[in-house]
Amino acid sequence: MNWLHDHPKDLLKAFVRFPSLSTKETPLVDWLEAEIKALNLVQVERFGDNLVFSLGNGAPWLMLNSHTDVVPPSPNHIGDPFEPVERDGKIYGRGTVDAKGCGVSMLRALLELAEEGYQPKGKISVALTICEETAGEHNGMHFLRRVVGLKPDAALIGEPTLLAPCLAQKGMLLVKLVTTGESGHAARVTGPNAISRMGSVLESLQEIRFQEENPFIGSVKLTPTMISGGTAKNANPEVCEVMVDIRTIPEVSNTDIIDTLKTMLTADVHTLSDRFVATQTDPNSVIAQSCLRHSKKPFFGSPTASDWVFLADIPCIKIGPGDSTKSHTADEHIDIAQLEAAIPLYKSIIHDYFETYS
After folding, report:
1. End-to-end Cα, the chain, rounded Å
2. What's the distance, CA 298 to chain centroid?
3. Helix, strand, coil content of the chain in percent (nearest 5)
4. What b/e sequence results for 80-99 when a residue is b if at least 16 CB atoms lie within 10 Å of its CB, and e otherwise?
5. Three-state SS across 56-74?
6. Per mean pLDDT, which range of 35-49, 103-117, 184-198 is the poorest?
7. CB–CB of 11/104 below 8 Å?
8. Contact 354/346 with Cβ under 8 angstroms?
9. pLDDT tens across 169-218, in order?
């Protein structure tokens, strides 16, 4: 591949042909590391299967981050999801919009700046990390921040936003509700039924409201997503469990949410995951204002989580090519025009950010 002169759509097609499911990114990372090292334009560092490409040194340090992993193909995918198809000005395939298009655009922007001889008054990095699509222990950005100890001063998160600056993002709190009953034959037992108890719990869950709202991402949203209970068709169920997906906002802490659930619901409440915190960046921060000026689009908020949660301690803006409603779908695709426009946009934001410190 010619990373400086091939059309971005062809670079994206090369990315998509790697079926880089979470924890299966190594072949893509090996290829990409070799490709960029051969150019001898930017510093290349590898931490496990996480790649960091950098230009310049010192502070401030601006990091652009996207991820190399993708979710598994949809059962009704048309054709081979890892053989990209170009049609009607779009590229179809798994990962085109979430988020290999962002990764290609960010990396191309950095390489073009390097070829042009640009020297930032600080450091620019593009970090392409693994396992963003899973909430497990292998998350690459978590590893870079907590284990490697990378400490950028600001960041751009590469996720599809139609190139508009996302200023706030909902968090994700996962809880399990558990009710219990009396075991025994369904024809004989007169004691409590775990499933019936869960029915009243779910009715109470629908009534829970938090008054606080965020101007960009609204209010806390609680959604029961999975239910299980019972062991046989003729046995009174002893246990019923419901998973609840809770999308949080900065104004309401996870502790307050859990305390409310424990107070309002006649069920045991177990916290399964609480590290995906809600995030928001000061609209007057340097990076936010740079994105606002050059995107020429207003700030907005996102209901979906991303690796921003691991950069919540610094000013971040989520911005990238493509429509997020196409993420994880059977017809996932990205407009080529968006892919093309993202590269000069990222370059303009980088220039603007560092000019503030000149």
Report:
1. 35
2. 21
3. 30, 25, 40
4. ebbebbeeeebbbbbbbbbb
5. ECCCCEEEEEEECCECCCC
6. 184-198
7. yes
8. no
9. 999 999 999 999 999 988 888 899 999 999 999 999 999 999 999 999 99
